[in-house]
Amino acid sequence: MSALPVSSMDQELDFADALASFSIFKDLPEAVTAAIKKNAHHRYYDPGHTVFTNGQFDASEFFVILSGKFRLSLVEPISGAVMIEEFAEGSIFGLELSVSDEEYDFCEHLSATAEGKLEVLAIDSAMFKKLASNRPSLMRNIATYIAAELSSVRFDPARSEAAPHQRVYAALLDFVERDAASGQWRIQQMPKHRQLADKANVEEVVTADAVANLIQEGIAQREYPGMIINDMSRLNELAS
User: Fold this and answer.
1) Are residues 23 and 112 in the same domain?
2) Domain edge (last residue) among 101, 136, 155
3) Residue 220 and residue 143 in one domain
4) pLDDT digits 0-9 by tens, 170-197
């Protein structure tokens, strides 16, 4: 089962209003909304509190973010590299895992914390999947939602233009480590532009431009002989 929240409380919530802005819950019959409500938990988390930690998330529920930010971390067990992603108000985490028949090993390496005050609905996956199989209106909404998510990634025209820089950022992630003392993300020793270019399979000038962009945007700052990553979440976005 997924972990119980460190800081949470069930409170009265206008369920229909809370879900009104989420396309996946749009125009559902009253009986479907009532069934979802019966199997959903309204939770609050204080800033920095743990939603779940490594080994606790098993996709037995998914999260609808009503307010605040949900910060997700995935630790690559072999290299120790960490991927970070934020889910802001209006987004959903774990839906695709909930409706899939597959079991994913990477779930054991996921953890999540609240960025600021966080308010979520945690919805039971087994119930939701069973409900969808019997309710065409809900299944249609799920299919539309997942199709939109896939399309936004696959057909975003900006992604193809940014592909060379994207490969540089992905290569750069292999050098990022978390400083045990300060908690900062940093590259202890910056690779030479030629080394990074070879790793990303791009021209050296592209590597120099990509690194310069990180510094210009404030995502990173040089601290010779290395670099401090000020916004790890944004770097992960650029690399994916």
Assistant:
1) yes
2) 155
3) no
4) 888 889 988 877 778 989 999 888 888 8
Whole-angstrom distance, CA of residue 235 vs CA of residue 10: 35
For residue 10, being part of any structural domain is answered with no
Beta strand pairing status for 40-45 and 110-124? antiparallel
Cis peptide before 225 (omega within 30 of 0): yes
Give the amino acid at 14. Answer: D
Residue 120, both tokens = 């979520």
Q: What CATH number is attached to the domain comprising 97?
A: 2.60.120.10
Q: What is the pTM of this model?
A: 0.61
The phi and psi torsions of 113 (rounded to 5 degrees) equal -135, 165
pLDDT for res 108: 85
Over the stretch 8-66, which tens digit does the pLDDT of each residue have? 444 556 777 778 778 888 888 888 888 988 889 899 999 889 999 888 888 899 999 99
Count of C-beta atoms within a 10 Å radius of residue 173: 22
DSSP string, 102-149: ---GGGGGEEEEEEEEEEEEEEEHHHHHHHHHH-HHHHHHHHHHHHHH
pLDDT for 6? 45
CB 206, CB 168: distance < 8 Å: yes
Give just the sign of the alpha carbon dihedral 9, 14, 17, 23: positive
Residue 75 domain boundaries: 15-155
- Boundary (domain end) residue, out of 126, 155, 184: 155
Q: How far apart, in whole angstroms, are the C-alpha atoms of residue 50 and residue 211?
A: 33
DSSP code of 229?
E
CA 155 remoteness from chain centre: 20
Answer whether 230's CB lies under 8 Å from 219's CB.
Answer: yes
